[in-house]
Amino acid sequence: xxxxxxxxxxxxxxxxxxxxxxxxxxxxxxxxxxxxxxxxxxxxxxxxxxxxxxxxxxxxxxxxxxxxxxxxxxxxxxxxxxxxxxxxxxxxxxxxxxxxxxxxxxxxxxxxxxxxxxxxxxxxxxxxxxxxxxxxxxxxxxxxxxxxxxxxxxxxxxxxxxxxxxxxxxxxxxxxxxxxxxxxxxxxxxxxxxxxxxxxxxxxxxxxxxxxxxxxxxxxxxxxxxxxxxxxxxxxxxxxxxxxxxxxxxxxxxxxxxxxxxx
Length: 263
Known about the structure:
Layout: E1 2-6, H1 12-16, H2 18-29, E2 32-40, E3 51-56, H3 67-77, E4 80-82, E5 100-102, H4 104-110, H5 124-131, H6 136-143, E6 145-169, E7 172-193, E8 198-216, E9 218-222, H7 226-243, H8 245-248
Parallel strand pairs: 1-6, 3-5, 3-6, 4-5
Antiparallel strand pairs: 2-8, 6-7, 7-8, 8-9
Helix pairs in contact: 3-7
């Protein structure tokens, strides 16, 4: 998307035609697709006296998962936050969520240096090797954290186009045109049991949406909440996974999968 600025005012008829363009832009901005998938490998559910910690999967290259998204997942899961950040609080119905959520910074400090980006385990072999280190299992038991939820993924702009031209002259100022951009939020939450060193399964979400900037006298942005939708969809399914809702209705211990889309 580009924004052009010109010194001459456009004719009033051209500005009025922005109404028709705006109607098309509203249709494009309302377009969003969302998909959620779950895979379970081990039949296990978190107990009321156990805690989880939500961490960004270590990335030696690139920025990895945004801190804003991690905070959103922590809050929306609804569990009791242990060592919350300033101004952070849990959302949702806590009475239906028995587990606690340990602060990621406090967890990293308590397990230093084993969960630093350069030393954190990246697979089952690394996790089991970590648990065999002297003092690791004892420290995990001391702080009460049994499950680690690794977050991987990001939100990125995948496409854009159009243009908005703004002009100023003796008769006034105004903008004309339409610019748009498409974003995709693609995240995976993998759940690991720190007592056994096994992966229980994972939950993933993929959300794509289009936002629009309309030039109709003044620029009007119509933003599609792609990342927020991804957070809501992921945490809803992750909460269900952690408490074993699929197991309660006879879900398979080997693998359970759910998926859906919306527009």
